[in-house]
Structures are given as structure tokens and as C-alpha cells.
Amino acid sequence: MALSLIRGKSLQYGNSQLRFLSSISTMKKGLVLGVYEAEDECNISLTPTAAKYDELVKGKLQKNILLAGPKIPKGQTRVFWGLDENDYAGVAVVGLGKKDPGINKLEEIDEGKESIRLAAAAGCRALDAVEIKDIELESLGDAEAAAEGAALSTWFYQGLKNKEQQKVFPKISLYGQEGQKEWIIGSIKAQAQNWARELADTPANLMTPTIFSNEVSSVLSTLGITVQVHDKKWAEEKRMGSFLSVSNGSLEPPKFVEIHYKGDEGKSQPIVFVGKGVTFDAGGISLKPSADMDEMRADMSGAACVAAAIRAVAELKLKVNIVGLIPLTENLPSGTATKPGDLVVAMNGKTIIVDNTDAEGRLILADALCYAQEFNPRFVLDIATLTGAMRITLGRAATGVFSNDDGLFETLKKAGTETGDRVWRLPLWQHFTDEMTKKIKSADINNTAKTKGGGSCTAAAFLREFVGNDTPWMHLDIAGVMGSGHEELPYISAGMTGRPTRTLIEFLKACS
Fold first, then answer.
1. What pTM does this model have?
2. Which residues does the annotation mark as catalytic?
3. What phi, psi does 103 have (nearest 5°)?
4. Nearest to 142 by CA among 100, 170, 103, 108
5. Which tens digit of pLDDT belongs to each residue from 306-320?
6. Alpha-carbon torsion 312, 281, 358, 349, what sign?
């Protein structure tokens, strides 16, 4: 089930590549080149690589562009045939927009890098659409961003579709010698995100807590990462009553995955990542509406992002120590399920009234956050598809972030600007904590607020009760960016998005 991770220049992924590789020698080759927006619409501003190629074909490239109309809008593509009789059957020329636009401070995005991702995606898709499966892509000015756009745009989850009906994904490699190191970095980041997409999109009966644990252990252990899979008995010994209460309604046994990556033996304090791992969320007794409930197979997207980010960190050999904690369970209704109004006790001894069993993510994260303190962490970051309210707040535009540390957030924000997968900070005011703790008499805290509004903020306030007082911490709510509808990042095709895996990787690069 794992995607193959390419260490060389090529991007190859998916089961259908076995068929592809056997016939690659007979397939047409294609090339993707870039063109900038020229000040004079009658002129052409080729990238340096495209200009060199134009010399090789004795000006045929520019001649054909002029015949078709010199203006190629940003993210749009034109495919030309017969320019190069020896090497490339088709050449896709893609618009990059303005050259070096830099960072748009209002949009909080590096427009140059994002334009390159869009262009790489558009060019590779255009050649793929005309059955060119062996594609070379120039760096477009940033080989890392180009590799990301290419890899993310030409892969999608095909599951267990009949192999004869599966789409053959193209092989995409770097054209020329410029930016080979950056190309490999971009490939690793994008393929990590594609793995997160695969984990999240797999049907829940094929991605149970046990299967997820085995898959993550199988993939990460080959990279020298230590993976421990704890069972229910271990969680009981740790007194994780909050986590275990969610699993009461399911026949699938809960698991708790503990991942250790040691990239810097000289530093004792690790970074701890915690990922929500509800492999299917029906809401428990507080049953969700049936419409779109199938998407709740991806309620473990936080867990998938944690595993994928650590995978990339190992591939990149970053000098940082990371502990990944992933509580895994299903949340289903049954005669043994936790009931609304039940009381559970977390690992730190705090008592919780479960007013709504569909607010289960915070219950499993609570014990994982308590356990994180045992590692004397440098800081803790948790990531979860936690609240539908986040979809209302930010839509699909960005990940919502809550933090008690300004520096951590600013580092994450910069990472999001670089990757094009942005984050936005929301408040952790005492007002929201009071909503969760002061309006209850029978226990320490409710798992939902008694008043309406601010659902993402009160959920974050709940989690804060299980983080050490002196521990720097960030909570990422990814419910809005989980999947379906990709207008914000059009180089990600249909299905679950794996967001914000690349932002996490970029963040960890900055912390190493």
C-alpha cells in the first residue's frame, strides 16, 4: 500500500507503475518548458532553459508560440508537436506569470513558488492528457516547487480498482542539470503528502487502527525509525480513560502508535507531534448525519500527516529528534459505546463529562498530550480534523492554529508561506477556557461548551487543559483542509488532500 519513494531524479508512484515501466521504452517523450509574462504582449519571455531549447530547435519554439499567440496566461498550457524529431514528441509551454513576484504579504504566500507549482502541474497534466507518459520538466526557476507541483498533480488515490482500469501515472524527471538537489527535496515532500493522501482516502474497513499501525510501522521502520504499537492493555496501564472511552463502541481494538526519529543524538529534548487517529467517525451515540459520512474515513488525517512528515524528515536526514504519538480508534454507536453525559478520567486525573460523543477527537488527544509530557519535549504540536466549525471559519483556505508560543507560530506561518499551504492563528483566550470549565459542577471539564459559537476555540481550550503549563504548544485544526474541493490548491487532484504535510516538513526543517 505504501508509495515508492524515489531517491533519484524521477517521480514514480502507484501500483500501475509496474505496467508502465515494462513499456516505457515504446512511449512518447514530452518536455515541459516555461514562459514569463512579457511587458509587451507581442514579445515572448522564455525561461533561460526554454531559451536554450529554442536554440537547439533553431527557433521553432518561439515561431510556434508566436503563431498560436504569444500571450500564455499564468497556469495555462499550449502543446506543440514536431519541434524536436529526435527526443520529444510533444513540448508543453506553460505560463508562469510575472517573473520573480516575491511574497505577497497580504495573501501570506510566495507567489513565485506557487506559480511554479501551478505551472508544473498544468504542463504535466497537459502532456499526460495526450498520452505522453515519459515527461521531462525544467526547473522553471525553482526545482523544488516544480517537483512538488508535478508529483502532487499527477497522482490520485485509485484504491483497489481493477488493475486493467487503473490510470497509468506518468514518469516525470528533471530536464537538465540545474537544481537536482532541490528536485529531490521537492519530490520527497510531495510524495510524503501523497502517502498521507493515500492513508486518508483508503476505505475505513481497509484502514482500521490495526492496519494503520502495521502500515506505518512497515514503511517507517525501513528508514531506521523506531515504531512501537501499544495495545489496549498498555493504555489501561497508562490510565488513558479518555482515549479508551472513544473505542468502547467498536469491535476494532484501539492502538497507540509511538514513533521515534533520532536525527540529532546531541539534543536530549525531542519535538513531539501528536496526530488524531480516528479511522472512522460515525459520531458514536451522538450520531452524525448520514450525508457525506463516508468522508469520515479521513478523520485520521492528522495521524497520516504526522506519519508522513516524519517519513520525509528521515528521507531528508534532518538533524532533529522527533516523537510521534498517534492514538487510533473507531468512534461507533453500540450497546457498549460511551453515552452522552458519561464521565471519563484522563491520564492526568482530570474528570471529563462527555456531553457529545461526536466531540471524540479531543478525548483521544487529551491522553496523548498528557503522555507527551513524559518525553520532556522541546515543544508539542498536535494536528487533528477536530471541528466542523473550522470549516465555517476558514473554509478550505488555511489550517487553523492555536498556540501559546508566538515564536513557534511565526515559524509555522513562514513555512506555510513557502509551501503555499497556509495557516491562520486564532485566539486561546481565557474566555474559551471558562466556557469549558466554569459552567460545570460535576466534573473538571466538559468536552463541549454549553453555549453556541466559537467551537474551534473552545475545542482548543479543552486541549490546553492537558498540556503542561510550561510547555510550548501548537494545535492545528485541519478539518477545513482535509479534502474535497481543491480550488485553493488546484495542483492537488480529487480526493483527500494530505494537507498540510509539506508545511509541517518545512516547519521541521526550520526547527532542525
1. 0.94
2. 288, 362
3. -90, 130
4. 100
5. 999 999 999 999 999
6. negative
